[in-house]
Each structure stands twice: as C-alpha cells, then as structure tokens.
Design brief:
This protein has 373 residues and is mostly helical. The chain folds into two domains: 152 residues, no CATH class; 183 residues, no CATH class. The chain contains 15 helices and two strands. The chain has a two-stranded antiparallel ribbon. α2 runs antiparallel to α4 and α10 runs antiparallel to α13. The chain is globular. The relative contact order is 0.11.
Length: 373
C-alpha cells in the first residue's frame, strides 16, 4: 500500500489530481472556448466572405479550420486550439501546454467526426503524463515535449479513429431516421442533430457525411432535403434556446457567444446539472416536425450547413442559398416565415418560458447556466 501512497503523493506534487470537476467542467469548458476561438469564429468569417467584395474573409476562415484553401484542409488548427485550452485549464507548465498543439492536431484530424471528443480525451491524458515528467531530468527541454507529444500523438494514432467511430453509431441512427415518415423524421433528426451540435462532436461533419441535403441526391431526394431542414432547426433550437434561457446569467456576451457561436459552451453546466438541457431539446422536438410537415423546409444548399445551426448564421444562410440557387425547392412566403419562426422565434419563446418555469420550480438554480467567458 505504501507504493500507492507514494505514487499518489508524487502525482499531487506534480499537480495531477484527477477529479470530475477538473476534467468534465474545467477542461471541457476550456475546450469549448478553444473551439469557439478557432473553427467557430471561422464560420463567422466564412459568412462574411459570402458578401460580394469581402471574399478575403473566406481565406481567413480557411486558416481557422473552416473549409479548404486550394484543396488543403486546416482542420488541425482547431484541434491545436482546443488542446492548448485544455492544457491551460489543467494548469500545465509551458513545455507541456505548447506540445499539446501537436497532440490536438493529430487527435482532431484522426478522430474525424468525433474529433473534438478525441481531442478532449487524449489531450487530458497527454497533459497529465507531461506534467508527471516535467522537471524530472536535466534535459527537460527535450524530455517533456518528447513524452507529451509521443503520448498524445501515439494515442491519437491508436485510439482517435475508434473514438470517432463511436460517432458513426449516432450517424447511422440519424441516417435511419431519414427514411421515416416526415413527422417522425423531423422529430428524431431535429433532436439528435441538436444534441450532437451541443456535444463535443462535429454535427457539421455528420450532416456532410450523411448528405443531409437534396442537392445532388439521386435517391430519396425529398427525404434528404427535409431531413436537412429538420437538422438545421434542431441545431438552431439548441443555440438560440441556451442563449435566451441563460441571458439572466450571461447577458449580451453570452447571448452572442452561444447564439452565433456554439451551445457547446454549456456542456460543463450540463454535466453538473443535466436537467438544464431539457428546454432546448423540447424546442428541437417541436421545431423538427413543424419544419417537415407544416413549413416543408427543404435543404438544397451544401450539406455541411445542415449541422451549423445559427453558428455564423450559416444554417439559415444555407437554406436560403439552396432556395435561391434553383437546385430544388422554390421557396415562398411560407418557407421564409417558417425559417424565421423555427430557427429563431419559437426556440427563444419555448426556452424562455420553460426556463422561467424551471427556475420557479427549483430545477434550475441561480448560476446553473453561468458561463466562464
């Protein structure tokens, strides 16, 4: 037993103190900020780049990890940002934190659709191992980066693909839902895609992989187009819902960062208090069937936009681009009303109302939705 005591004391002396709060609150919250400061801010640049005369913003977006530049993807950039943010949250010494850029890059690229989740798991391990060897030798400038990168990139090669493969099960479930009747398809796709957008996985990659758009579809064109519309409103419901519901705690900064950035910022709070996720999920469940059955919102833009929600407004923009491109649905007033209602107004109203009721009933506490921005 003495050996375990000595190991525990050594780990504590190096700042390696495992806990749910450190990993699933501090580290996950920092990871979400890292994602926001790279890929998600890139989506805003991409939206600006769609304006004639402002194409330079599309180039900036590419270097943030959004899309490709001359056929080259810089997706590793956002992985590096997330890993460095995690290292900073875990109070890693500089050589460990800087080395995590390579770890995050490898984990995000090799993890594919589950890249952010792979970055989260593998970066934590690499950081803690790096901290254990920091300043244990006279050649620390070589040993610490070597061990940190070898551990992180090695684990990425071995495990990131399997972590990403776990997302394939969710992808398969969503793919199955696209074959259902419009009502149930709208319900299932909207809820699952909305939850995927908030989780540390790539909802955009899932939509791209499933081709949730009628654009270029050779089979089930209408089903895929409707599924794309359901995915958009489900994602919007999560982002707009959390932004409005948490306005009391986070003000305008939180409204913008969640409404135009990502609802993933709320993941640490969801881990602590899962019930706070209920209003946005309900909003997704309401919006999805309305999108497929009443307003018939069909996606004929690029498939990746189906999983973007209001991030840089690319979800609604993708719908409009598809409608105006003459590829499929010729949208009328009903569709534009549906877009505004389901992507913005309805989620805001549902989550504001349910949020207030849940606060009144004691299900949501004073700072349960507070963000560390």
């Amino acid at each position: 037993m003495k050996i375990f005591k000595k190991i525990g004391e050594y780990c504590k002396s190096k700042g390696v103190t495992p806990s749910l709060k450190r990993y699933f609150v501090d580290a996950m919250g920092a990871m979400a900020l890292g994602l926001f400061s790279s890929l998600l801010i890139g989506t805003i640049f991409a939206a600006l780049g769609m304006i004639p005369g402002l194409e330079v913003f599309s180039t900036i977006a590419g270097y943030c990890g959004y899309g490709k530049l001359d056929g080259v993807s810089y997706g590793g950039i956002c992985g590096a940002a997330m890993a460095f943010a995690i290292a900073n949250a875990l109070k890693a010494p500089p050589p460990v934190a800087y080395s995590c850029a390579a770890v995050g890059c490898a984990a995000n690229v090799l993890g594919a659709g589950g890249g952010p989740l792979a970055v989260f798991v593998i970066s934590i391990i690499a950081v803690e191992v790096g901290k254990l060897v920091f300043k244990t030798t006279k050649v620390d400038i070589l040993v610490t980066p070597f061990v940190t990168i070898f551990t992180g990139v090695g684990l990425s090669i071995l495990l990131a693909g399997y972590i990403g493969r776990g997302v394939e099960y969710l992808k398969a479930l969503i793919g199955w839902a696209t074959e259902l009747t419009p009502f149930f398809m709208g319900l299932v796709v909207s809820v699952l895609m909305g939850m995927a957008l908030t989780l540390p996985i790539s909802s955009a990659a899932i939509c791209a992989g499933l081709s949730l758009t009628g654009l270029g579809a050779v089979a089930n064109e209408e089903g895929l187009a409707l599924a794309g519309g359901a995915a958009i409103v489900g994602c919007c419901a999560q982002m707009v819902g959390f932004a409005v519901m948490s306005f009391k705690e986070n003000g305008w900064g939180g409204l913008v960062s969640q409404g135009l950035g990502t609802s993933m910022l709320q993941m640490p709070n969801i881990v602590k208090r899962p019930v706070i996720w209920l209003p946005p999920i309900i909003a997704s469940a309401v919006a999805g069937p309305l999108a497929t059955c009443l307003f018939e919102l069909k996606m004929y833009g690029t498939g990746i936009f189906s999983g973007m929600g209001t991030c840089g407004l690319l979800g609604p923009i993708g719908l409009v681009i598809g409608w105006s491109g003459g590829q499929g649905q010729q949208a009328g007033a009903m569709q534009y009303i549906g877009l505004l209602l389901l992507c913005f107004v309805l989620p805001a109203l549902i989550c504001a109302l349910l949020g207030r009721l849940m606060r009144k009933w004691g299900l949501i506490g004073e700072n349960d939705l507070k963000l560390e921005l």
